[in-house]
Amino acid sequence: MASDDIVDHSIFDQLLEMDEDDEERSFSRDIVLNYFEQAETTFASMDNSLGAKDLPSLSRLGHFLKGSSAALGLTKVKASCEKIQHYGNLKDEHGSGSISEDEALKRIGALLAQTKEEYREAEDYLKKFYASA
Amino acid sequence: MASSSGSSSSTSSSASPPLSALPPSLHPQQPQPQQYPTMRPLPPYPPPPPPPHYPQGYAQYRPHPLMSTHHSAPIPPPPPPPHAHHHPHMHPYPMPILHGQYPPPPPVHPQQPQQPQQPQQHYVHYPQGSSIPQPRPIPRPPQPQSSNPPSHHHHHHHHHPQQQPPEQQQAPQSQQGSQQPSQQGQSCAAVTGGSSCSTQQSEQQIHAHDAAHKTRQPHPTPVSPTSAKPSLLADAKSPTPLQDNDDSDHISGASSSTALTTTTPATTTSSGVPDFVKKLFRMLEDTSYADIVSWGVHGDTFVVKEPNEFAKNVLPKHFKHNNPASFVRQLNKYGFHKIKSQDDGRLYGDQAWEFQHPNFQYNKKEMLESIRRKTPASKPKTVATTGNGPASGVQDALTTELRKDTNDLQTQVDSLTKLQSDIASYLQGLSRNYRMVVEEILNFRKNMVAQDQVIRNLVDYIVGKDSANEKFQLPNASRMGLPSASAEASTVADESSPFITPFAFTKTSIPSSSPLSQAFNGLQPDLNMNTIMNPSALDLPKEQAQKLLTTYQQVARASFHQMNEISRHVREAYGMMQTPPPGLSPTPTDNVPIDARSGEGFLNGDGVSGPNVSGSSSSSSSTTAASSSTSAGFSASAAFASQLNSQLMQTQQQGGLTVFTVGGFAPRRDDGVDEGDSSGTGTGGSPRPPNSMRVTRATFVPPWSVPPKVLLVEDDVTCRKLSSKLLQVFGCSFDVAVDGLDAVERMNVGNKYDIVLMDIVMPNLDGVTATNRIRQFDQLTPIISMTSNTTENDCMTYLANGMNDILAKPFNKHSMLSMIERYCNHLVGQRAAALGIPPAIAQRRLLQPEPSRIEEVAEDEPMDLKDPLFSESNFTDMLNMPMGELGGLGIQPFQYLSPLDLDSFDGLNAPASDSESSLSGSPMERAEMEELGYEFSGRKREACELGLAIGMGVKRRRA
């Protein structure tokens, strides 16, 4: 499936596997919808923190969204969130080295936009999936 | 040598005060830093099987190396400390279950080498933790073998006592001792200072092994340790001087004193002459008694010429008593021999005693050092250590060693005592288990009888129909006290609905009256139908009988399975039996052939409508079955099913197990038929939404018989939901904490969990800190870090803060399950503990419970059916008893009524099950069970065969 770069199906299918009902998929649907909510909230918080130049908060938020994105197998979003987490810690995208605050804010600014896009992509995909399910 | 010996006389006496003045508190503490770093209870990574619950006990069983070489010295050990207070297993029953999995500090664990700061971290926890059972202050000599390559110092300190004996035997301490300083190149500025330092040091070292000393310490017993001891230690350890010093540094950090350890032999060897020998020598130097006692003519003996005079006048002066026998005994102890030569005897008179010792010679005082007590069995009178004789070092060495021997003995006594109590509690558990098994058997029997009833009714019904045609008489209906839905037999022909399910419920309901044997015979495919059928049944057309039989077998099978399920589910949510919900009714696919046959050939074919007590409608029997359907048996069963439901299955929705555990059995909802009219009641009467009946993929059978209690700590909703779901699927019972603070509180209020899954990054309190706090009061519960931050540094931090393992996010079903399995592996141990098997015994395979064991018991103790224990009410009481109470009684409710346990009966005669093939159970669990002698033949084997096996076994034995 071409969606594999959006959603890691080895992970996402496990989620689906836990649905007890093929038609409704209420369990995974619930989780995914919840994730959407969470992501929106988190992005909003990230925007705020970016405005406030609150790097620790950005790092924390990045970590936060990373976790749930990973749980759903949203690989790209997860990767980006991880980078945000690192930048927020004044580390480079691999979590090592160290970067200046300005650099971190700059990188996060760019990355945040990208992350949102990646998220939209995933959201679209998932919404379609559940609409057809 | 001479000068140092002169000085040491003063130092040695000055050295003893600090020794005795050592605050007792010092002793217990000093050894600990050496021991605990390697003993932290954190299972390493990957963890070993749960640490042996009784590691010390068994380890101590092995004879200490010293013991074999020094068998001559069994001092009566000092009164053993009151073990009962130390050992949790002395407590009757429940304790091991709680603590079994993660034993208190002492267990030996391979240390994780990559955690440098751990020793201190954890050291903080244990010694000070007042709640922890006092670490047994007993040396554990065998640890080096049983444990591993731990840190050197730990290793070493067990090592050196073992080195001593050979050393002492071979090495005349004086020479050895005198060479020491130069050999080791250790600088010791002041010999005298060295002696006191080393005395202390040696004390520490001794205490490291000699924990029993702690109990003695308060007594001013003049135990030998004196200035002489250092020489011994130095001597003994001379082959490994570097190692020794290394380790000494580790030990106390008092490196200054350790440096001196090896330097003192010169001073101490000189004072090593036993007091008695010195006094003896001095006595002989005094020539004023020459006619009473004197040196022999050759100077290599001494002679007591006038024993009476000697006792009266000389002994009191020099030995402060006038008991010649005692004097002679002392001589013997020091290796003096009485010479009985007739020739020489006359030299001194007939009464004279002449004693000889190779090293006791006139004017050769320096040889006195070599005179040692033959047996270190009793405390020499020389303890006061006034002398300088070099021999005292040797003597003290012996004393030290003696103490070790004593401790070893004591240790063995301890472990024996412990073993005994273990065995006792094991027996206790066995008998308890036995009773539970019997109860279960009785329960099965009851059910079988009930089934038998139903089948009889069925047969009667058919026979009656055959003979009386359209009228259906149900003679048994009234007897059963059930509303006899009679013969007019409304025809609710519903071919698609299996009529089997109601049977599954019938069994518990119908009063049992018919013989057990019939019930079980009925299950045997190869058994003659005649036994179960009425005589008139013989008249039935054969194919009908055959079909009936087939049906019956199916019923029985389902019913057994149900019982099995029930007993299993009861455990997790006491009181509320899990209706073998969807699982009980065989899946439609299973049933189709049967239905077809029974329906067409048997029911429909005869124009009798199959009562519509299909799976889905059974509980809604009020709607269909009761009102309109036909056979009393069916309606009765259906009615009872609903009754049962209402009574016992109130909360069945709680358990997460329902759908998944029985996935293999779960029927797909028969859409066309039930959806409308079954009105939301699930198959088997479980009031679950229709949808949930549909088990599609996620069929999982929990590997544990006792659901692990999990604390899930996760702030993120998504992860929380996912993890919760997984836990649910795994059949775990779990609580959820939303952050670290929540988790700490939950743990702090006494909630016991088998495992904690802890997110790391959380608001309020992060997982690491939370773990750290939890570890302040709970060192045992495994805490697993659930995190996506898994760099090496992160992991170090987690582990250093008391987390046991890391479950990397995003985890999947398998990684999470295997993590839980790994740490809830102890539920096997718990099962063993529930059986009363001390884990140590189980692990050492000292016991190999076999299926036959139960048979033996059964033979020995015929079941007393009148025993109130077996009465139904009693059993019911137990079912209704709150879990806590049962626990209080030392019973883990239904832990050993699990299908797993019953699996061990498979070997008897159970054919392989057809409906479930997958084996489950973690390999580890299985391995352990196999160690215990359980045979695994597939835990998911249908219970009916198990029950059959049991039933047959019982029948056979009772016949």
Would you spell out the secondary-structure blueprint of this structure?
The complex is a heterodimer of chains A (133) and B (959).
Chain A: H1 9-17, H2 26-51, H3 55-72, H4 75-88, H5 101-132
Chain B: H1 2-21, H2 26-29, H3 31-35, H4 55-61, H5 65-69, H6 83-86, H7 94-100, H8 118-125, H9 143-146, H10 152-170, H11 173-184, H12 191-209, H13 212-216, H14 228-237, H15 241-252, H16 255-261, H17 265-269, H18 275-285, E1 293-295, E2 301-304, H19 307-319, H20 324-333, E3 337-338, H21 342-347, E4 353-356, H22 391-468, H23 475-479, H24 500-509, H25 516-523, H26 529-532, H27 542-572, H28 581-584, H29 588-604, H30 625-628, H31 632-648, H32 657-661, H33 671-677, E5 709-713, H34 717-730, E6 733-737, H35 740-748, E7 755-759, H36 767-777, E8 783-787, H37 792-800, E9 805-808, H38 813-823, H39 826-834, H40 839-843, H41 851-860, H42 872-880, H43 883-888, H44 899-903, H45 906-909, H46 923-931, H47 943-958
Parallel strand pairs in B: 5-6, 5-7, 7-8, 8-9
Antiparallel strand pairs in B: 1-2, 2-4, 3-4
Region (Disordered) (chain B): 1-272, 374-394, 576-629, 662-693
Biased composition (Low complexity) (chain B): 1-39, 111-133, 165-187, 252-271, 614-629
Subcellular location (chain B): Nucleus
Descriptive keywords:
heterodimer, A: 133 residues, mainly alpha, Four Helix Bundle (Hemerythrin (Met), subunit A), 0% strand, B: 959 residues, Arc Repressor Mutant, subunit A, Rossmann fold, 5-stranded parallel beta sheet, 4-stranded antiparallel beta sheet, elongated, disordered N terminus, disordered C terminus
